[in-house]
Amino acid sequence: MSLTPRREPAAADIIGSLSRAGDLFQLLRDGKARTRAELALSTGLARSTVAARIDALMVSGLVGPAGEALSSGGRPPSRFAFNPSARLVLAVDVGATHVVVAVTDLGGKILAEHRLALQVADGPETVLDQVVAQGKELLAVAGRSAEELAGIGIGLPGPVEHDTGRPVKPPIMPGWDGFDVVRYVQRSLPVPVLVDNDVNIMALGERASHWSEHSNFFFVKVATGIGSGIISNGELQRGANGTAGDLGHVQLARGEDVLCACGNYGCLEALASGPAIARALRQQGLDATKGADVLRLAAAGNMQAIQALRQAGRDIGDVLATVVNLLNPSVIVVGGSIGESGEHLVAGIREVVYRRSPPLATSHLRIGISMAGQRAAVLGASQMVTQHVLSPAVVEATLAGSAITG
C-alpha cells in the first residue's frame, strides 16, 4: 500500500525561499515529473541554478530520471521526479498486545511487514530488541540493507513527549516511564528515530493514505481506551505537553457515578470503550468480558450488543459535537478495534453530532470508518519519519554529507 503523494506546498507557497536544493526538492515531492525549464519557469530561478540543484538531488538518489518531455524541435528535454525508493523507513506500531514492524519506501509503500504477538508490559528492552531484530530481518526480506534506512518511526500506546521520544507515565506500560527509546534503538540502528503516541500516528497514516485533500482532519480510536489525533491546517497538533486529543477523559453527565481507571468519574472511556461496553452487557446477563466479545455478539445479531454499541456511539458523539464546534474538521474518521467494527457505533456518533452541531459546521462534514484499518499506525509512523527526513533542512544536510540524526 502506498501513501498518496503529498499535495502541498504548492510552488507559489515556497517561491522566494528556494535558496537551497532542499527547498527546490519540496516542489518535486508531489511525484509529478518536470523538466529543468519547467522548474525554472515555476520558481523564477535561472536554469543554471536549477540544473545545479537537480544534479545534487540526482546524486543523492532523491530525484531520478522520468523520461523525456515532448520536443518542439531538437533533442527532447529530460524530465525528473521524486524517487521514493531511494531510502527506506522502518515503521513500528507497538500496541498493548502486539507489535507491527514494516519497511516502507519514502512514499509510504510497504515493502515488507510482520506482526508479532508481544506484550508492551514485557518492558522496553524486550519489546525494542524484538523491533530491531524484526526490522533487520524485514530489510533482508526486502533485499535492502540497514545502510539504506532514512529513519525509524515508532508509535506507542501511551503519552509520549514527542521532542525526546520518552513515554510519560503511560498507564499500561510498566517500566516505560521516561525510558529513552530513541537512544536505545540508535545503539543498534544509528538513524533518526521519532516516537509518538499511537493515535497521533494513526491520524497521520489515515489522512495521508485516504484523505490527503483534507487539511482539517480528526481521527478517533475506540478500543481498550479512547483517544484522538488532531490535524489542523495540515499539521498534527500535539499541544503544549503532547497530550492534545485525550478524548477519553472528557467527562459526561450520564456517567457521573461511573469510576474511570484514571480515578475520576464519568470519563468517556469508562462509558464507551470496549471494556466499558462489555461490562454493561455483563450487567444484562450476557457473556462479555472484552471488546471482542461485544463485536462477536453484535455480529451474531444480538440486539443488546447492537444497542450498547449504538449508545457508546451517542456518548462519543456528545464529545465530538463539542470538537466540531471548536475545531470545525471536514472529516472525522473512527478507527481502533471497536471503531472499525461496523456502522452501529458510527451511527450513534452521527446521530448526536449532526443534531447538536451548527448546520454550517456540519454542512460538508463526513463521519466514517477507518479505511487504512490496522495499517493506519505503520503508515503514520512512516509518514512521521518522511515529514522529518524530507524537510528542506534535512535534505540540505544530507546533500552536504552531514545528515541530521534527530
Provide a descriptive summary of the structure in words.
- The relative contact order is 0.13.
- By secondary structure, the chain is of the alpha/beta class.
- Helices cover 40% and strands 19% of the residues.
- The chain has a 5-stranded mixed β-sheet, with helices on both faces.
- The protein has helices at 11-14, 21-28, 36-43, 47-60, 124-141, 181-186, 198-210, 268-272, 274-282, 291-299, 303-327, 336-339, 343-356, 359-362, 376-389, 392-399; strands at residues 34-35, 63-68, 78-82, 88-94, 99-105, 110-116, 149-156, 160-161, 166-167, 193-197, 217-222, 226-232, 235-237, 331-335, 366-369.
- It has 3 domains: 11-85, Winged helix-like DNA-binding domain superfamily/Winged helix DNA-binding domain (Arc Repressor Mutant, subunit A, Orthogonal Bundle); 87-191 and 379-399, ATPase, nucleotide binding domain (Nucleotidyltransferase, domain 5); 209-371, Nucleotidyltransferase, domain 5.
- The model is unreliable at 4-18 and 402-406 (pLDDT under 50).
- Helix 11 (303-327) crosses helix 13.
- The protein starts with 10 loop residues before the first helix and ends in a 7-residue tail after the last helix.
Describe the secondary structure blueprint for this structure.
Layout: H1 11-14, H2 21-28, E1 34-35, H3 36-43, H4 47-60, E2 63-68, E3 78-82, E4 88-94, E5 99-105, E6 110-116, H5 124-141, E7 149-156, E8 160-161, E9 166-167, H6 181-186, E10 193-197, H7 198-210, E11 217-222, E12 226-232, E13 235-237, H8 268-272, H9 274-282, H10 291-299, H11 303-327, E14 331-335, H12 336-339, H13 343-356, H14 359-362, E15 366-369, H15 376-389, H16 392-399
Parallel strand pairs: 4-7, 7-10, 11-14, 14-15
Antiparallel strand pairs: 1-3, 2-3, 4-5, 5-6, 8-9, 11-12, 12-13
